[in-house]
Amino acid sequence: MLRFLKGVVGGVSGTGLKDLPYNIGDPYPSAWGSWTHHRGTSCKDGDGSPVSIFSLSASNAQDSLLAAARNGVKRLRTVRHPNILSFLHSTEVETVEGSSSRVTIYIVTEPVMPLSEKIKELGLEGTQRDEYYAWGLNQIAKAVSFLNNDCKLVHGNVCLASVVVTPTLDWKLHAFDVLSEFDGNNGNATGPMLQYEWLIGSQYKPMELAKSDWVAIRKSPPWAIDSWGLGCLIYELFSGMKLGKTEELRDTASIPKSLLQDYQRLLSSMPSRRMNTAKLLENSVSGLLSFGESWGALIDMAPSAGREEKNISRISWWTPYTFMEILTLKDSVEKDTFFRKLPNLAEQLPRQIVLKKLLPLLASALEFGSAASPALTALLKMGSWLSAEEFSVKVLPTIVKLFSSNDRAIRVSLLQHIDQYGESLSAHVVDEQVYSHVATGFSDTSALLRELTLKSMLILAPKLSQRTISGSLLKYLSKLQVDEEPAIRTNTTILLGNIAIYLNEGTRKRVLINAFTVRALRDTFSPARGAGLMALCATSSYYDVTEIATRILPNVVVLTIDPDSDVRSKSFQAVEQFLQIVKQYHEKTNAGDTTAASTGISSIPANASLLGWAMSSLTIKGKPLEQAPLASANSGLPLSSRTSNASSEIVVDSPSIAAVQINSSTDLADQPVSESPTSTDESKPSPALVNIQAAQKRPVSQPVPQPKAQATSLRPKSTVKVTKDEDDDLWGSIAAPAPKTSTRPLNVKSATTLDDDDPWASIAAPPPTTRARPLAAGRGRGKPAAPKLGAQRINRTSSSGM
């Protein structure tokens, strides 16, 4: 028998704490009986996960306290229920101190806290306190009913001290030292049924147990003793005091009226008439937490025609919790209504209950796909109440997993709220786990998803490696610069201007000028041309004087006669800024500074500001997309040089961009607003714009050094003038093919007239040309055909008269 008990507790005397792979921490002020409740951490795998460690010591190995403790270890290890404390490990240690020895039993369980300590920590009052108590009593009643009705066991000492609380605020029953089988079949036996009943405090004993009337106890129902203990627990909870003597149970002033009748039946003087704990679950405790009425009230809060939204403060916290537990049984309409109301409802509930009960359930529902996309808004709202460390542990893992979801609504919601959690994502997680899923949105068929993916890069790009930026991101941006949606083309240019600081020098050289001048400045959509000008100004410190004089200024100057007034204003501003840089180079050169030509000029005008998103032309179900620009949430992102205070605000009534209004701080207040071309007309540029694009297409010849005589003598002279720029090849080599669209493409040349010197010729407007009509044979100006020499075949026709 002794060997069996030692095997049950997981160790033998003298093995020491080496058999306990846990660190014992500080004890709690209170615990049940003679046990000491310690905080602890696990040493397994070095994870340091929290646990609870209970210890009990005695000087004699045959001490009755140790015998009762061994009974408690055995019972806790073998009885499993969601509302009973979970057992992890146990051991028994004998330590020698001088001539005496001491035996200690350790029990390791899931991390819990004494209920009395948790009540002080929560500090609940009024209705919220009563609701939390009733919910906890519901859980303890389930545990007691399981022991009494299903297992035919008697706990013997249900009270405040025998209840502990998990980090998620669940109540658990423990203290199984007195636990014994109910011996009701042996009604004539006079011996004690509870071997360790002497551990029970006299104030918690019912009359028959206080008198040791074992015959009456055996004839009573199995729940008689524990129903009395449950009544003691109710008194201690609502009175806020530990029960001192049995007579105090008659004071019902603090007991809620809805619970009073059942409280009295639990404490009946006749054991046979005491209420079964299973019946208690069906009565007042369950009624106090009635889900049907609360959920009906929550649905009734939804505003409708002629009815205003009602106050949600009367809704119990039990309402959303119970709904989340049975979420899989609800239809999509109920889920959508619930999750849209949940953010406002959460503000009215106790903060600790929201963070420790609702938040884990919500994260789990999202992770496993049972929650709708509006649940993400509620998750981020609750997560904002956590500290940065807790947010990284409780919320971020769920968000990272959601990026792999195939649900388009979830992906859209993630991108719409990326400003709320993007800064918390580590660079490693973004580069290795998040970006690959986000990048699928660049080529999505939904224009809304492509636009949100593009805007998310303002937050994610600083966390990407140079390999990912050069090998993947820039390819997608190259494709988006010829997207069928004008708004996406415009915002792609703005994004390139904002993330230029995160590109290495070589990438800037081969990307920025080509992207801004060859594509953006030649776009048929006027806001896209304006965005190109803004991006050039914002990145002016990355260009040397030669690039400014030969590649930037020629393309910018022609836009000073652009049909759109806002583009003209930005063009004049850009010309002034780049001319100032060239003048500074001229002054430095005259002063003898020979290094100015090879380095960018950083002295940019002080009126710089962050490039903001130009527009959001996309809609959801016919309604304009309502979202705040990401630039406002990321105003702290630096740019080495930024544009003047030029910000664009575009009002769009439909996806086809029926009306576009651009307001610039550089325009006069009374200046008339020009109307930009719509997306349906952008393939038909005005004659003035055609001439501008034709002028942009003409390359600026640069002085070429004369080749050596030896080289010219060995190589024949070529009749083809090479004007191809090496930078164009580099940007073109990473450019993605233009998407196939159903709309009319931009001005694309035919394959026979494509200019190989310009890799962006496919999106540039062709210069006006005429095609001569072919002349008829034998007509036209010129010399007549020379007579043919030699014998000629003459076709003669026979005549009937000859």
From TrEMBL:
Coiled-coil intervals, chain numbering: none
HEAT repeat residue numbers = 395-433
Name of the protein in question:
Protein kinase domain-containing protein
Among PANTHER family, the record links this protein to: N-TERMINAL KINASE-LIKE PROTEIN, SCY1-RELATED S/T PROTEIN KINASE-LIKE
Native source organism of the sequence: Salix purpurea (Purple osier willow)
UniProt lists compositionally biased (Low complexity) regions at 770-788
Q: Where is this region: Disordered?
A: 665-802
Ranges for domain Protein kinase: 1-386
Instruction: Name the PROSITE patterns on file.
Output: HEAT_REPEAT, PROTEIN_KINASE_DOM
Gene3D superfamilies attached here?
Leucine-rich Repeat Variant, Phosphorylase Kinase, domain 1, Transferase(Phosphotransferase) domain 1
User: Domain of life, per the record?
Assistant: Eukaryota
**Compositional bias (Polar residues) spans?**
665-680, 740-753
Q: Which GO terms describe its molecular function?
A: ATP binding; protein kinase activity
